[in-house]
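can u pls check wat happens w/ pyridoxal-5'-phosphate
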Amino acid sequence: MHNSHFDIPFNVPFIHPDVANYMQKAAKENNFFRNQGYYYQQVQKIMSKWVGHSRIFPTPSCTQALEIASMIIDIQHGDEIILPSYTYASTANAFVLRGAKLVFADVLSYYPSLDPKSVEACITPKTKAIVWVHYGGRATRPEEIITLSNKYNITLIEDAAHAIGATHNNRPLGTFGDMSTISFHETKNIGCAQGGALIINQHKWLEKAMQHIQCGTNRHDFISGKINAYKWMREGTNGILAEPLCAMLSFQLHHLETVTRRRKKLWNHYYHLLNPITEKGIQICTPDKEDNAHVFYLMLPDKKTCTHYQQTLKEKGIHSATHYEPLHLSPFMQSSKLISHLPNTDKFGISLLRLPLHHYITEDQQQYVANQILDLTFKKK
Ligand SMILES: Cc1ncc(COP(=O)(O)O)c(C=O)c1O
């Protein structure tokens, strides 16, 4: 039990107050359960305005979008995939499932996203793709990553799970690689409980993508009236987000700008309140004009301090969260005896602590969070 008058959850999903009414109205329509129906197309339409093309496929999750990406580029046993170790298991699973060998590149010293130098050192003739995770909805060193993919002619997949609403040079993240994947899970800035999207930036992969998401059939040609019966053309999965979730998502997406704007304001407020702790050697996440304020984190000096801060905040009713356990240290990777030397990744794995940040947190609550952290940092030992 804690004594505070606040109980501050780490995350509260944004749900527009009119979602329930909207869903009720949608449920009365005849085609509410039709696969790839009106609402599926609405999500495509809304997203295509941002992305600048219409090759967008709402999927049941970002995990599944990554698995489809892995099918599209035809991963074969022994192909190498370069990815960060500081990521969620889904980034890796999509390729492991098809027999790829994972090659973990380190992240930057100042932010947990791929370090282009480390990526370049990992490239071999067997490298099939680079998976670029936009940690916290932010593109770091984009020009260098894109240059590497062009220079070595390696497919670039953006795992933009965190990145809805984020841009670089005013262009949405998810539009820089050959293809990209987005998450609409409840933990993301905007969501529909569970969902995702696959964005195909290279036209040459469109046909394959449309078959892979339709259980490997050419059903889309049947629906458009080009053929009388559809056939099994290649391997595939049911990669289509269900219509009721598309209805919710299409409605929620209209509020993306409001949500992003509010998160950025809250992010800046934390930044301002917590700046004094940097004097004591605790780093705080640096600002970025174009990210989507998905994450606000502190970097504590070591694991013990990180656990102490998290525990003390919890006693005060504040739910903070570490983030990924680096994949190269996971039981699964340890059993495969893959040895990786990733000092920056190791550091983020033990020291990064995320603070509560969501649409509904108030500035008073943020002040309370900051006060506890300032107390912890400056109190006499
Ligand atoms: C970097 C990254 N990729 C992929 C995923 C999987 O997303 P989903 O839950 O939509 O499958 C996550 C989940 O949070 C993630 O953090």
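Residues 256-274 form the longest helix (19 residues).
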